[in-house]
Each structure stands twice: as structure tokens, then as C-alpha cells.
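Here is one chain, start to finish.
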Amino acid sequence: MQRLPRQAGEVPWPTQEWPETSPTSDVDARRLGAAIELLFSPTGATRCGITQALLGIWRGGVVVERYGDGVGPEQTLRSWSMAKSVLHAVVGCLVDDGLLELNAPAAVPAWGQPGDERGTITLEQLLRMVDGLDFVEHYEAGSRSDVIEMLREAKTSDTAAFAEERGLAHPPGSVFNYSSGTSMIVAAIAKRALGGGRKRMEEYMAERLFAPLGMQSALPRFDGAETFIGSSYLFATARDFARFGLLYLRDGVWEDQRIVPAGWVDHARTVTAPSKGEYGAHWWLDVAEAGTFCAKGFQGQYILISPEKDMVVVRLGVSTEPQREYVVEALGEVLASFPTAGD
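Its structure:
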């Protein structure tokens, strides 16, 4: 596993303002320009969809920043499933505070009846999407879609309760099944561990995560049961999503303050065996380039982290599933334009 780079002593932390970094002579400017053009040009839009924001953080400073029509640095944009990776950070804070245990049976009252095999599912298995629950994460019209049904009335309904009602399709720990319902179960566990509802969770996320990083724009959304919709709904600026990415690139440390426990970032990027190398713990792996880990949303939102390049790349936009392949290709070209850290 690639060692996570430290923030260079001469580069200020971007808690207040992002420092800027100029490309050096070993950056392939032509290759970088072509990748940016692919993401933003009218021709590229046919292949990649609409790119609303692209932000490249290299060696701790902004080296690329571009926005689509009508979008600027202060505009908050949706995360979709990038919120799952933020939820991973929240769980890490709760583990650090002694309020949650990874390998104990998950605290889900609905699974507490004697003989209910779901009662053996651990928080660790939920974070790695190997809980075994029968939840369908499809977005195609005309087919069963538990995620669409769950989120359709999220503002007024209890999304976690919907997911908790699913039966087992596989023995816990045996099969990888990416599931927004699983993330909602985790979010409800976090809420119960804290005690209180929306207000308490908002305060905790602000105090333990957003405020130390300077993520002033971050706006989590909540469902009808006052549970953070940690599967799908967090709004922030591109710069604030980049701050979150930099936290994970810097091993969970910010301005010499540890935000998530030691080893928690490695927990995120450690392969979940049944995923065949694609998934860690609420983070995707090896997206665009080997050795990366990534928060991503279903319309082509990415916080892409490359320890090898000492880079965070944020892309926000709206892309179809076929278009996302070209988006990832373009983001890979952005990374490939920069030298390996230390070169």
C-alpha cells in the first residue's frame, strides 16, 4: 500500500484559503490541457457529459481550477454517493470517541429478535458492503430498484428503516453488494450512538469534521427520521470537497490535529476481498490509476486521491453511465500529467 505523503512544511494548510501551486517543468502541460479540454469542450460534453467543476490539488496547493457555465467557486454542488466516504469519516470520529465498535454486532434494534441472523452483522461488514442484505442498487427504469424507492420519499420517510427491513440474500461477509441502503443503516447507527436527532448530528459533523478543515459550505441533508442521508446527500463547493480529499491524502491529519483515528484512512483503502479489488470501506479503489482511492457519485462526481502523485482531483458534474467511462479516462490523463511525488 502506497505511503501517504505529508503536507510540505512550506505549504500552508487550506483551512482559510487554498494556496496555489504552479506547474513545474516536469508537468506535461499539453497532456493536462487536452484532458481539461475533453472535460469542458462542447465536443467533450458529448463524451463526458456536463462538467461543472474540476479542481486539481498538487503537493497541497491548487494547480487546476475550472468551472462550467454558470458555476463558480462559491457554488455548492451535490455529492450523491461521495457522501458515503464522508460518512466513513464520521464513523471514524465516533470510533475514536469510543461510541462505536467496528467488529461488534451492529446496533440495529430491528435485528434484535432471537434467531435473527442479521443480528450477527458487524459495523465493519456494513462499511465494506458485505452485510449480505438483499438490497438492489439499480437505477434503470423498469427494474427493481430499492435505492430509488428508498430515496424517493427520503425527506418524509425513515430511509434506514426501509433498508433494515431487507432480508439476507447471502451469509454476512461472503458477498460484496454495493448498497445505499447499507450506508443508511450505518448513518442510523451513528445517530443512535450520538443520541439526539438532526441537530446533534449536525453539531457533531461540524465540530469534529467540517470546522477543523474549514469546510464552511458543507450541508448534509436529513431524512424524515432525522438521519443523515449519508448514502447520497451532501452539498459543498468543489474547494470544500477538495479539503475533505486532502484530509484523507494526509492520513487523517489536519494542521497537526488528528481528525480521524490513526489507521482509519488505511482502513478506507484496504481491499474488501469479495469486491475483487474494487472497494475498500465506503471508498472505491484503483479508479483512473492504480494505487488511487476515490469517493464517487453515480452522476460522475469524484474525489480522486493519488498518494503516488500527492494529488487530489475533484470533478463534479452530470454524466450518464457510458459517459463516466470517458470522465475516468480524462481524470486518469490529469493524473498522468504530473510526476510521481519525490521525483
